[in-house]
Amino acid sequence: MNFASDNVTGACPEVLQALLAANEGSAMPYGNDPLTEAVEGRLVALFGCDLKAFPVATGTAANALALACLAPPYGAIYCHAEAHINVDECGAPELMTGGAKLVPLAGEAGKLTPETLAAAIHGAGVVHHNQPAAVSLTNETEAGTLYRPEELAALSAVAREHGLKVHLDGARFANAVAALGCSPADLTWRAGVDVLSFGATKNGCLAAEAVVFFDKAAAEAFPYYRKRAGHLFSKMRMISAQLGGYFEDEIWLRNARHANAMARRLAEGLAALPGCSLLHPCEANEVFVAVPAPAIERLREAGFGFYEWAPGQLRLVCAWNTEEADVARFLETAAAALERGDSAAR
Ligand SMILES: *Cc1c(COP(=O)(O)O)cnc(C)c1O
Questions:
Q1: 138 lines ligand 1 (CB under 6 A)
Q2: Containing H/E element for 315?
Q3: Can you tell me which atom of ligand 1 is nearest the CA of 209?
Q4: How far apart are CA 114 and CA 181, in angstroms?
Q5: Which of 29, 36, 35 is nearest to 53 (CA)?
Q6: Which of 8, 69, 211, 271 could form a disulfide with 2 if both were Cys (CB 3.0 to 4.6 A apart)?
Q7: Which domain-ending residue is among 250, 270, 288?
Q8: Checking phi first, is residue 275 left (phi over 0); if not, alpha (psi -120 to 50) or beta?
Q9: Which residue is closest in CA terms to ligand 1's atom 1?
Q10: Residue numbers of the chain with a pLDDT score lower than 70
């Protein structure tokens, strides 16, 4: 079983059903179809506000194109040093913004504080400096932790004070909503978020994300950036259909709740083992854990997939279809290795 990430899985049956249904008949291309129109309506209902929404097929496109709408080429975009936009997108945000500067900031457990953000913002009006334009936050964070609505609101307040727009990378937004049990609105526009990259691929779609603009004025140039980037799909309905299946009957929340529950079980089981300790609190569907090297070896031999983030430090991610039996087997394998004293070799 593979705990390397939540994109190692396939798509959930409801999403595949929706795709099969969309495959019947014909529809106009480039998003001028009823399924694409329906996506925005679903999101309006979900967030309880007016908004503009655009389907894309990767999270990198969602982030980079969203940021292109928030920051000029001479702008500064503040983010956590470990943010996906900073370390995992090969410079896509810089490319799509035409050269805006990402300003990476430190923060415990994947999170920024209002103090850190406030201290970093500088240079407004000074011709020599990049002009403060946006802050990008991630929820669920890259460390598997969560921002609560009040934490987001406090960060947004600092942003507002300095005239910055707020972007939220929600590659695992569903896991955050499911774990916190609050409304999607509380974690976005009510907390000052202007644009959300609403991930769906990792939580049960094949390839689908939605860029959601709560600040509709900021969306004006989005269609053009998207086309230039090659993300205006001619059969857009196939992306939109996935999102349709995903949002129907709260499938997105069901999937995320399951992934979160499996991760919690994994985290609690590992934390109880000798020599193992959680590196961050497990708040959604990712577990960051220190495991003695011999046990890691044994887990590999047993066929488990995972990333060793740093020597002795694992990231384990649960998905919408992670099986309880696989979690149990992982824990048993680790426990057997540790209790047999394999770790004594260290
Ligand atoms: C997976 C992920 C993305 C999107 O990645 P793509 O590979 O471009 O789909 C964006 N942000 C975070 C935090 C992610 O984990």
A1: yes
A2: strand 313-317
A3: 9
A4: 24
A5: 36
A6: 8
A7: 250
A8: left
A9: 171
A10: 341-346
Instruction: Please give the tally of structural domains in the chain.
Output: 2
Q: What is the pTM of this model?
A: 0.97
Examine residue 2 and state whether it is found in any structural domain, yes or no: no
Taking CA atoms, 330 is separated from 265, 267, 285, 299, in Å, by 11, 11, 16, 7
Same domain membership, residue 326 and residue 220 = no
- 270-305 residue pLDDT tens: 999 999 999 999 999 999 999 999 999 999 999 999
CB neighbours of 21 closer than 8 A, spacing ≥ 6?
A: 241
Q: Which domain holds residue 304?
A: 256-341
Residue in 37, 73, 40, 30 with CA at minimum distance from that of residue 231: 30
* Calpha distance 172→141 (Å, rounded): 8
Closest C-alpha to ligand 1, atom 6: 59
Q: Is residue 290 part of a domain?
A: yes
Distances (CA, A) of 335 to 242, 274, 331, 338: 40, 8, 6, 5
- Among 343, 332, 340, residue whose Cα is nearest residue 269: 332
Closest-CA residue, ligand 1 atom 5, reads: 59
* Residue bearing the CA closest to ligand 1, atom 3: 59
26 lies in the same domain as 134: yes
- Mapped onto helix, strand or coil, the DSSP state of residue 125 is coil
How far apart (Å, rounded) are the C-alpha atoms in residues 316 and 137? 22
Q: How far is it, in rounded angstroms, from Cα 335 to Cα 180?
A: 30
Total number of residues shown for the chain: 346
Span from the CA of 186 to the centroid of ligand 1 (angstroms): 22
